[in-house]
Amino acid sequence: MGKKLLIDRVGIEGIRYFDTYRKHGGYASVEKAFKMAPADIVEEIKKSGLRGRGGAGFPTGMKWSFLAKPEGVPRYLVCNADESEPGTFKDRYLMEFIPHLLIEGLVVSSFALGSNRTFIYIRGEYAWIVDILEQAIEEARQNGFLGNNILNSGFDCEIYVQRGAGAYICGEETALLESLEGKRGNPRIKPPFPAVKGLWDSPTVVNNVETLAAVVPIINMGGDAYSQIGIGKSTGTKLISACGNINRPGVYEIDMTISVEEFVYSDEYCGGIPNGKKLKACIPGGSSVPILPANLLFKTAKGEKRMMTYESLADGGFQTGSMMGSGGFIVLDEDQCVVRHTLTLARFYRHESCGQCSPCREGTGWMEKILNNIEYGRGKMNDIDLLWDIQRRIEGNTICPLGDAAAWPVAAAIRHFRDEFEWHVLNPEESQKRNYGLANYAEPREVVAS
Amino acid sequence: MPDEKKLFKVTIDNITIEVEPGTSILQAARKIGGDVAPPAMCYYTPLKGSGGKCRTCLVEVAAGSTADPRPMPKLVASCRTNVMDGMIVKNITSEKVIDARNGVVEFLLINHPLDCPICDQAGECHLQDLSYEHGKEGTRYEFKRRTFEKVDLGPFIQLHMTRCILCYRCVYTADQVSKKREHGVLDRGDHSQIATYIKNSLDNDFIGNVIDVCPVGALTDRTFRFKNRVWFLKPMDAHRDCPKCSGKVTLWNRGDEVYRVTARKDQWGEVHDWICNECRFEKKETKDWVIEGPTKINRHSVISQGHYVGTVKPREVLTEVMNGQAPRLLMDIHTVSEVNQPQIELSELPGPATGDVFENKNPKEK
Amino acid sequence: MITFSENKLKEAQRIINRYPQGKQKSALLPLLHLAQDEFGGWLDVPAMDYIASLLNIEPIEVYEVATFYSMYNLKPVGRHVFEVCQTGPCMLRGSDQIIDYIKQRLQINVGETTPDGMFTLKTVECLGACGYAPMMQLGKTFREHLNEEKVDQIIEECRSKAARNN
Ligand SMILES: Cc1cc2nc3c(=O)[nH]c(=O)nc-3n(C[C@H](O)[C@H](O)[C@H](O)COP(=O)(O)O)c2cc1C
Ligand code: SF4
Ligand code: SF4
Ligand code: FES
Ligand code: FES
Fold this sequence. Notes:
The complex is a heterotrimer of chains A (450), B (366) and C (166).
Chain A: H1 18-23, H2 28-33, H3 38-48, H4 60-65, E1 76-81, H5 90-97, H6 99-113, E2 117-122, H7 127-142, E3 158-163, H8 173-180, E4 204-208, H9 209-221, H10 223-228, E5 230-231, E6 234-235, E7 237-244, E8 250-255, H11 260-265, E9 279-283, E10 292-293, H12 294-297, H13 310-314, H14 317-320, E11 328-333, H15 338-352, H16 358-375, H17 381-394, H18 402-426, H19 430-433
Parallel strand pairs in A: 1-2, 1-4, 2-3, 7-11
Antiparallel strand pairs in A: 5-6, 7-8, 9-10, 9-11
Chain B: E1 8-12, E2 15-19, H1 25-32, E3 58-63, E4 76-77, E5 87-90, H2 95-110, H3 126-134, E6 150-153, E7 157-160, H4 169-176, E8 184-186, E9 193-195, H5 209-213, E10 219-221, E11 234-239, E12 248-254, E13 257-263, H6 277-282, E14 290-294, H7 302-305, H8 316-321, H9 333-336, H10 355-358
Parallel strand pairs in B: 1-5
Antiparallel strand pairs in B: 1-2, 3-4, 3-5, 6-7, 7-10, 8-9, 11-12, 11-14, 12-13
Helix pairs in contact in B: 2-3
Chain C: H1 6-16, H2 28-38, H3 45-55, H4 59-68, E1 80-85, H5 88-92, H6 95-106, E2 119-124, E3 136-138, E4 141-143, H7 148-165
Parallel strand pairs in C: 1-2
Antiparallel strand pairs in C: 1-3, 3-4
């Protein structure tokens, strides 16, 4: 059994409340951190090798050290709890079951970064979690871990929860800041980066919920010890939210040393595919990362065992690999239709485009329309090439990575499942009645680069 | 030494110039001019915060700076990226840029009506110019185009949202020039639209400037008399003593009649002296103005082409850019527009067509 | 003119005070949520103008925001809104069938409200409950692991709640 640092305590009755949480070691990291210099805390985070858990995997310590510190200007820490990438529901789990872990991490991080006013931006649909967090904040304040002069350190900090209102794009950090300022969630054009000009033009750090929660065990055990867990640059533990056609959907904490195959078939994690079906494909890191056919999921193109690490999941690049992303692990069994699944994702990204820049605003809708035609038996052969061309011209040419996120799933689906698209076009009527099925994706076969 | 500011050297399409730190790639390229200047559909120099949205100005940065000569991994919006010392930029010398720009033009056009012959902006539409220079022939879009009803935003301005490319210029103009905003971008994604939501009138003093900043025919002047094709009109620089604004304008005349008043645009189509509504909408007689002389237009738009029929072939570099394809939107206007059937051979005129040439020749008028 | 009740006004003030001086516009999203709760589940123009006046901003700034976010209703909705997720992970677990079943049970299409104003059916995109699919949002709660019986139960529950309140 792997190491658990974040959600090991969720089974404890009443862990949601301060007293129980405190009894089980809660807020120890605050007591330790407040005896350290803020710069030393940042140093510990750097040593830990912690990488952002929101999707991009950027080293957190480095991000913190980029924060500008001009005299007389406030700095802000903002926690990104917008969690809207399809397949991802890990932050919700953490906030719902062990809210004090996040609050504890936020107090330490706010101290390290010098943020006296820290915000949690949470997606609007998680309405009940707002209440859970606000209660935890109130308890922490009552017990002297928030408010003025925390633990006699002279440091003041308040945490506020801000609720979004239904917009995936507000997970993008600059769109989030716009939204927090009471505006439309249009991503900002960078530079300037938030570390220089963020919330209300002040230097700002935006981090994911899980990233900030991981600060707690890092301070408790020390950055070096944390960095010992995992493989290579994939240090520590990672929450994976597993869903789709598996026996045990849910949120799992893994230390990054297990293989993808173990994750899928072990009863400790996904527990295999229901009803004795075969695995057809998997999107291992949230809907925007490339889908992998079964034959590339457990083994890399080089024939090595694929591990649940940032590096191994990305092995082979977009030709034969994928990404860790946000840790949303979506499994498709042999009965599933890749065209239909891709259509739902294209629809998602069209729906969530902010509409600011032309390739994403126009391209996402176009891709959805073409996929819709193919799925419903009205597709043409050259539609597949057209789709390819559209995604290619969205990718990399937009203001924010939502354009890429919309392009990648379409690209990967065509790259690995082109015959399924062609079958839809060639068999318009039959494709309305049954699915293409497993074909030969589960068997190892040569990978054609496109 | 002391007061001398260090200039940055930047090379764009193999031409090196020196510019002040803080200059954007686009501004630097405009200094060089010609084809080196990327097209810009949303950036507008006088409007703070504009740019970055349309993506037509994407360029490749082949070397970031002398200090860090690594190339940038993605194309960047030249309007919002500042030059660094020793930066090497590729615009029309980059295949990647040409391909991406091609794509952007296609994206901008998939929901844009292809009704240039009947659009009031024809002849001074930046999208028309853009697709002429950077587009491909034919559309691959086979779906219904997005359409909206035309709405009158009060007595002066008409909004035809179907043509809008969401450049946000009019929004920044309302914020920064008219200081009061009553319209904005509503909804999101592919159904975003410019609208007022309820109040259907824009009437504060400087709001007319939104017409001039609009790169397409989405915001137009309702007082533009007899809706004329702009290339029949003769633009003249003129001024008046105006208590509210600079009073420096361009009059669009035909004979002695003022058909339209606009602010003056520079060669990039940008206005630097905003004008008030009174000058724009209410001073429609020559006697209201002191005429300075004919406006010099050097934007390479169809207005300055002056003649139409002989110019189907773009310049060589464009043919190259477009893989030898003929531009789609440059059509023989005689065959497509009713308004334009005077018995005059436009291509034979020595200079720009003016009102004088057409005096009493167009049966549709008057 | 419409106004918040005294209690809501206090809450609004408390929210506005979270932000530094001069940044009161930041309270816009939370206040729109408050307004939607207070004024019948949707935002009409007077409600939005009222929020604009509270925050001292132009009405258009409120319209821009209210139309951007999918959770603000700009038209009246039924008393109970079924928002069923239809994105990939839910689709893999049968959300298409659940949507069809609800359509058939309520005799309405997606986007419609039953003639008695009781139910509205909407399809929405991923709500962060993919592991508990298929699912829908009902008011402030998520209903997860849906199947036909569960849908029946939920419809019953809504009906009896309405009967009690009438
Ligand atoms: C379209 C889009 C959506 C995103 N959604 C989220 C999200 O819901 N939660 C999140 O933590 N990060 C999200 N991100 C990543 C954030 O922009 C940002 O990188 C992250 O919050 C940084 O935190 P980290 O370094 O701790 O991962 C999103 C990015 C994009 C482009
Ligand atoms: S890529 Fe899409 S979501 Fe991002 S800024 Fe452009 S239009 Fe908005
Ligand atoms: S109406 Fe014109 S100026 Fe305004 S956003 Fe649209 S295209 Fe730009
Ligand atoms: S002009 Fe640069 S992106 Fe539009
Ligand atoms: S896909 Fe339905 S909740 Fe995520």
